[in-house]
User: Which sequence fits this backbone?
């Protein structure tokens, strides 16, 4: 039983990391769209 719980938590951690990375990318791209291009060197 202990092993199954450990596998589950590993799965959840991986999922959480993936979701976090994806949402950070989404936030970054939407921020880039919001910023006026003229004032910011890309």
Assistant:
């Amino acid at each position: 039983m202990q092993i199954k719980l450990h596998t589950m938590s590993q799965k959840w951690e991986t999922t959480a990391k993936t979701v976090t990375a994806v949402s950070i990318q989404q936030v970054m791209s939407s921020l880039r769209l919001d910023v006026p291009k003229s004032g910011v060197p890309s």
User: Anything to note?
Assistant: DSSP finds one helix and no strands in the chain. The two ends are 52 Å apart (CA to CA).
